[in-house]
Specification:
- With 628 residues, this protein is of the alpha/beta class.
- It folds into four domains: 114 residues, no CATH class; 85 residues, Threonyl-tRNA Synthetase, Chain A, domain 2; 224 residues, 3-Layer(aba) Sandwich (Rossmann fold), CATH 3.40.50.300; 90 residues, Arc Repressor Mutant, subunit A (Orthogonal Bundle).
- Helix content is 36%, strand content 21%.
- Strand 1 and strand 2 form a beta hairpin.
- Helix 1 runs antiparallel to helix 2 and helix 18 packs across helix 19.
- The two termini are 32 Å apart.
């Protein structure tokens, strides 16, 4: 028990001879997989290089049954031995208890040997694939999307364009405004007329003529755009008589989207210049959407989510969905195992304010945990951190792991605020201020653009905003700090505002049937089996049992086994608990928190293993008896 010797001799690439106290064995294999021939039998070892996860199967040997990893072998041995001594004399049973500790430590050494065998085959010159073990995952195809007729060659629209162009020239000349040139660009909802004023004509002579031009063109929503570009043009946006739908198929099939290198690409639609418009949510880094009911907010949210699903792998992206009505975002529950992050005891789509508070606070804990990982890795942002991890610069045994982006989508934000107020706003402000560096991004939507909902703290940390049609000018000023949204046409017509620049965009349309087809396609793919678990908030003092320990109903079923493992090995490592019991890191973290409350391990000190406060199994048994 007190010593361990192991010599590894390389014969050829992929072939090794191992000499240890257990005998002589041979390994043949490649990175992540090998076959061991030894005195105990023949084993097939498989695992994920660099993660510490492995599987060991016996294919021949003295045992009658196939074994899956030495960890299971230990449990079977203990159970069989305990049943064997049930009816025997006490002396034999006492001898078994003395050897139980030796058997446990031997099992852990066996696990370490398997991990050593697998890690020895790691090629540290080859970067890790963050999409493993789901590298066969197939991204959604364009065939899942609807196609709509193009409007660019519509003869009726071309005739309308020429007539309006001549009418604009006549109206401006009637007011004494001469123009040097005029060009027109057809968009899906509006046509943009770019005019160059003749020398000597002042801009202020043109201001205030919007209503006169609208009357002359028989339209209520003519909008002047003073962009002050290098060409010295003034734009006049005139609505088309016939509306045209912007299909998501036309956006996703474009070269701009297909070749995009954005970290979190969000396609929106087409501008009045008929150009495809998209932005990088990772650089935004958060998005505020507001507008009246029925103007396209929910469609825009579905468009953004679909953009991310088409470009990101389940290991690279997780969504936190919050919808008080449970109607708009509930359709994504069928892909919860692959793309959703949630609390383990809550639904995958948050529907009430209590769940919303717990989820937002949990995200703040995840924020702090990620900052701790970045500090220990000396990385400035999530992109640098993941690059270090992929290139074997960070060790999983130290608690490091590949970090996916987390996009938090909150629909009907006003409903949550009206019910819980500051309990909702405070964690959102914290996330908006700090979460960009660690890859957590917010998309917030509301139909109530008032100052008590969209507060100054929210607006200060969300420079990128989208305004749909609103009834009053004051509503537009609340959303984008200027007028203009009250003159939009509705049905997906929006103003995208970033850093003071306003761009008019027609949102791409996606219907419920398209979303269903995409979700069904994704759910049929290989990928994670369970949703990502967000960190659990520690229970409040009034939820603790008398001794400061968790209520018995909330104790993890693996609590006692984990306690014995940690005391016997004297290693308070969360990653060891994770590997030993084949559980997720979040559950292993909750186990360590419960062990801390029970007085078995000390407090967390960054990514270092916790101090074990119990010296031996006898002290542990006494402690467990007192807790029970």
């Amino acid at each position: 028990m007190g010593w361990r010797f192991r010599k590894r001799i390389k014969i050829f690439p992929g072939i090794h001879i191992n000499i240890s106290k257990r005998g002589v064995s041979a390994n043949v294999g490649v990175k992540g997989a090998n076959i061991s021939f030894g005195p105990d039998g023949t084993y097939v070892n498989t695992g994920l290089p660099g993660t510490g996860l492995y599987r060991r199967d016996r294919v021949s040997g003295s045992s009658d049954n196939t074994q899956t990893s030495t960890a299971y072998d230990y449990n079977n041995t203990i159970e069989k031995s305990e049943s064997k001594f049930e009816n025997n004399d006490s002396l034999e049973k006492e001898e078994f208890e003395k050897n139980k500790e030796q058997l446990t430590v031997q099992s852990i050494e066996d696990n370490n040997e398997v991990v050593d065998d697998l890690s020895s085959n790691i090629d540290y010159n080859t970067p890790l694939n963050p999409r493993e073990p789901w590298s066969n995952y197939q991204f959604p195809t364009l065939e899942l999307l609807n196609k709509y007729d193009s409007f660019e060659n519509d003869e009726t629209l071309l005739l309308e364009l020429e007539a309006n162009k001549n009418r604009v020239i006549e109206v401006l000349l009637s007011f004494g405004i001469e123009i040097a040139s005029i060009r027109a660009t057809i968009g899906p909802r509006c046509t943009l007329y770019k005019i160059t004023l003749a020398p000597g004509v002042r801009i202020k002579d043109l201001r205030g003529l919007e209503e006169d031009v609208a009357l002359a063109l028989f339209s209520h929503h003519v909008r002047f755009v003073f962009s002050y570009d290098e060409f010295g043009t003034v734009g006049i946006e005139v609505p088309n008589r016939k509306n045209h739908t912007v299909s998501l198929y036309s956006i996703f099939s474009s070269k701009k989207f297909q070749e995009s290198c954005m970290d979190l690409p969000c396609a929106i639609g087409r501008t009045v210049n008929n150009e495809i418009f998209m932005f990088d949510l990772a650089k935004a880094p958060h998005l505020l959407i507001a507008g009246s009911t029925g103007q396209g907010k929910s469609v825009a949210i579905n468009t953004f989510i679909t953009s991310l699903l088409y470009k990101k792998h389940p290991n690279e992206l997780k969504l936190v969905l919050m919808d008080p009505l449970g109607l708009e975002l509930g359709i994504y529950e069928r892909i919860a195992d692959k793309f959703i992050a949630s609390l383990s005891d809550d639904t995958t789509v948050v529907t009430n304010s209590g769940q919303a508070v717990r989820t937002l606070n949990s995200l703040c804990v995840e924020l702090d945990n990620r900052y701790e990982l970045l500090r220990s890795a000396h990385a400035r942002n999530i992109k640098e951190y993941n690059t270090l991890f992929i290139n074997h610069r960070l060790r999983p045994s130290d608690g490091h792991q590949f970090l996916p982006y987390i996009v938090v989508v909150i629909d009907e934000y006003a409903n949550f605020i009206l019910e819980r107020g500051e309990e909702i706003e405070e964690p959102i402000v914290k996330l908006a201020q700090l979460a960009r560096a660690v890859g957590i991004h917010l998309i917030i939507s509301t139909k109530r653009p008032t100052n008590d909902v969209i507060t100054g703290a929210i607006k200060a940390n969300m420079p990128v905003r989208i305004a749909f049609k609103v009834p009053e000018k004051v509503d537009s000023q609340v959303i984008i700090d200027s007028s203009g949204a009250e003159k939009l046409l509705g049905n997906g017509d929006m103003l995208y505002v970033s850093s003071g620049t306003s761009i008019r965009v027609q949102c791409a349309f996606i219907d419920t049937f398209e979303t269903e087809r995409i979700c069904n396609y994704i759910s049929a793919q290989t990928g994670p089996l369970y949703p990502m678990e967000l960190p659990t908030i520690k229970e409040q003092e009034d939820n603790l049992n008398g001794g400061g320990f968790y209520d018995v109903k909330s104790i993890d079923p693996l609590f006692e086994e984990a306690a014995r493992l940690i005391v016997l090995t004297q290693q308070g490592s969360t990653s060891m608990v994770q590997r030993r019991f084949s559980i997720g890191y979040n559950r292993a973290g909750r186990l360590m928190d419960q062990l801390e409350q029970a007085g078995i391990v000390g407090t967390a000190e960054g990514i270092k293993p916790r101090e074990v406060l119990i010296a031996n199994e006898e002290q542990l048994n006494n402690l467990l008896a007192s807790l029970n």
